[in-house]
Amino acid sequence: MKCVIIDDEPLAVDLLKEFVSKVDSLELVNTFTNAIDAISIINQSNVDLIFLDIEMPHFSGIDFINAIEKKPLIIFTTAYSNYAVEGFNLGAVDYLVKPIPFHRFLKSVLRAQQIFNPQILPANNNPISTPEIEQDFMFVRAEYENVKLNFSDILFIEGLKDYVKIYTTDNKFTLTLISLIKLENLLSSKGFARIHRSYIINIKHVKSIQKNKVIIAEKRIPISESYKNSFFEKINL
C-alpha cells in the first residue's frame, strides 16, 4: 500500500517513517507537517493509506478529510484520545494514541490491509501474530500540555458544561475541555459508569452505596434516577 504521513510534529513523523520502513507491504510516498500542503498531492496521486494527526495548527486532520476529493484509508495518530469516537464516525481504520508502540502500529496496518485487499489476510488465518494489549490510560489536554492519566488512578469525573474535572487518587484533579458523553463512550468498557448527568465514576474505587449516593474517597456523589437502573445492573445489584 502506498502511504503518506501527515503530522505537524517532526519527531512523530520520524517515528512513523521508521515504523513504515519495517513493514514490507507499505511504500512511503511522502510526509507532510502541514495538512494543507498535502491536499493537492492526495487528490492527484494514488495514495492508499494516510497516517493522519488530528490536532494541527490552522487546519486539522478533520478539516483535511473533509477537504480531499479522494478518500484513502485513514489511520489517526494523535495524542488526544477524546477524538476516538469522532474518528471512527469518519470511517477511520483505526485510532492510535501517542506514544505509539510498534506492535499497535502493526495491528492497525494489518487491519488496513484486510480492508484494502481481503485476500491477502484471511480473517481466520492471520500470518502475523501481534500481542493484544489493552490500553489502560488516556491523554487529555490540560493548559499547555498533554497529561497522561491511568484509568486505575481516576476516582471520578465531574462535568462542568464544556469542561470536566478528572479527580485522581493523588488528591488532585485535571481540568480539560471534553464532553462527558465522549468520556462515557471511551470509559464504559474500562470499569467506569455514568451515574448522573454530571458524574462518571470508577467502580473499583466505590467504598459504599448509601440510598441515592455513591461514596468515593469521602466524596458523596449523587445517583440520578435516569442512570440508577443501568448502574445497578452493571454492578449486579
TrEMBL record:
Keywords: DNA-binding, Phosphoprotein. SMART domains: LytTR, REC. PROSITE patterns: HTH_LYTTR, RESPONSE_REGULATORY. Residues 147-237 form the HTH LytTR-type domain. GO terms for molecular function: DNA binding. The modification 4-aspartylphosphate is found at D53. Residues 2-113 form the Response regulatory domain. The keyword Glycoprotein does not apply. InterPro entries: CheY-like_superfamily, LytTR_DNA-bd_dom, Sig_transdc_resp-reg_receiver, WalR-like. Gene3D superfamilies: 3.40.50.2300, LytTr DNA-binding domain (2.40.50.1020). This is LytTR family DNA-binding domain-containing protein.
